[in-house]
Design goal:
disordered N terminus, 66% helix, mainly alpha, Serine Threonine Protein Phosphatase 5, Tetratricopeptide repeat
Length: 279
């Protein structure tokens, strides 16, 4: 059993979550998805990855994919991550969630936390989150069924071992929405994870945390100034990013700002100044 599974189990048990360590294997293969064969045109996986990045930056996606496939088939996690992301969003290749899932799974299958020289931990951390997201909805073509329990375990591992803000946010959403037979709705747990992600600058977490604090939750009284502070930070970040998917953040801020008193706004401004000084 890989060491990271044992450690994850101990950490999760310590939190009394009662979740089993996930079976990470996809199909036992470390090669490219079925029907593809990487070309052995490179000296080593690292050199192939560098050539792949050169091709990617120049827009030569065919060459870059061949190089990434060679590096990925020979154990390079960065190449696996890059291919996973390309297939996940259709960046230079046809969008293919099945292939993306395959590459992300290879990363976590081969992760060894006893390896003292890990320069790819952010890639590993994000791969756990990606597999968790896919586990929520499943992949019908590949036979991967929706599995909220595995998603919970993926997010927990990335949140606890790597402090991954996306994992913390996804955990919060699971606790907000609940998942039958896996986790019940628990706003207090959700706020705990949102606060951790918000402190790392996760704007969606900041927005939800601010909304919950401003309005109160589960019998907890509102913290209007504190909530308005987080909503202001999230609104500012959303305006800067100009991502249409974050339009809801502006709506939450506008509703809170309209309901806030002058005192709420003044104290929120003080909180915001203190936060910026600390960070």
């Amino acid at each position: 059993m890989p060491m990271f599974r044992r450690v994850a189990f101990l950490l999760l048990a310590g939190l009394a979550m009662g979740c089993a360590v996930p079976a990470f294997a996809f199909d036992g293969s470390d090669g490219p998805p079925q029907g593809e064969s990487p070309l052995a045109l490179f000296k080593n996986p690292s050199q192939a990855f560098r050539q792949g990045m050169d091709g990617y930056r120049s827009g030569n996606f065919k060459t870059s994919v061949e190089a990434f496939e060679y590096a990925a088939a020979n154990g390079n996690p960065l190449a696996r991550w890059k291919l996973g992301r390309m297939y996940a969003v259709g960046d230079g290749v046809p969008q293919d969630d099945d292939k993306a899932y395959r590459y992300f799974s290879q990363i976590i299958n081969n992760y060894d936390e006893d390896d003292g020289d890990r320069r790819d931990l952010s890639v590993v951390s994000n791969a756990f989150v990606a597999v968790g997201v896919y586990s929520l909805s499943g992949l019908p073509k590949t036979g991967v069924k929706p599995d909220p329990e595995r998603a919970l375990e993926m997010f927990q591992y990335a949140a606890l071992n790597f402090g991954n803000a996306d994992a913390q946010y996804n955990l919060a959403r699971l606790y907000l929405d609940g998942a039958d037979g896996v986790v019940g709705k628990d706003s207090r747990q959700a706020v705990r994870w949102l606060a951790l992600a918000a402190d790392k600058g996760h704007l969606q977490a900041q927005a939800l945390l601010g909304h919950m604090l401003f309005n109160g939750f589960e019998g907890m009284p509102p913290q209007r100034a504190r909530g308005l502070m987080w909503l202001t930070m999230a609104r500012d970040a959303a305006v800067s990013s100009k991502d249409p998917k974050d339009a809801w953040i502006g709506d939450l801020y506008a509703k809170a700002a309209a309901a806030a008193s002058d005192s709420d706004r003044q104290v929120a401004s003080l909180y915001l100044d203190e936060h910026h000084k600390r960070n």
